[in-house]
Amino acid sequence: MGRRSSSNQPNEFLFEEGGGRGTHLHSKSVPSLLKTITSAFKDKKSIVADDQVRTMGASFSHLGLSNDVVSSVVSLPSSNTGKKSSSKSKNLQRWTSSGLSTPRDSEHYTDLDDDWDSNVENCLTSVNSQPKFIENKPTFEYPLIRKISSGVKSSTDDGALALYAPHILQEEESHKELEEMNAKLSRYHRFKHLVEESTVDMDKLKKMAWNGIPSELRPISWQLLVGYLPTNSNRREAQLHRKRQEYLGLIEQEFTKEKDAQTWHQIEIDIPRTNPRIKLYGFKSTQRSLERILYLWAVRHPASGYVQGINDLATPFYQTFLSAYIKDETDVTQFDPSTLPKDSIDAIEADTFWCLTKLLEGIQDNYIHAQPGIIRQVNELKDLVRRIDTELSNHLDDENVEFIQFSFRWMNCLLMREISMESTIRMWDTYLSEPNGFSEFHVYVCAAYLVKWSDELKKMDFQAIMMFLQDPPTKNWTEKDVELLLSEAFIWQSLYKNATAHLRG
Question: Deepest in the core among 8, 163, 278, 448, taking most CB within 10 A?
Answer without folding.
Answer: 448
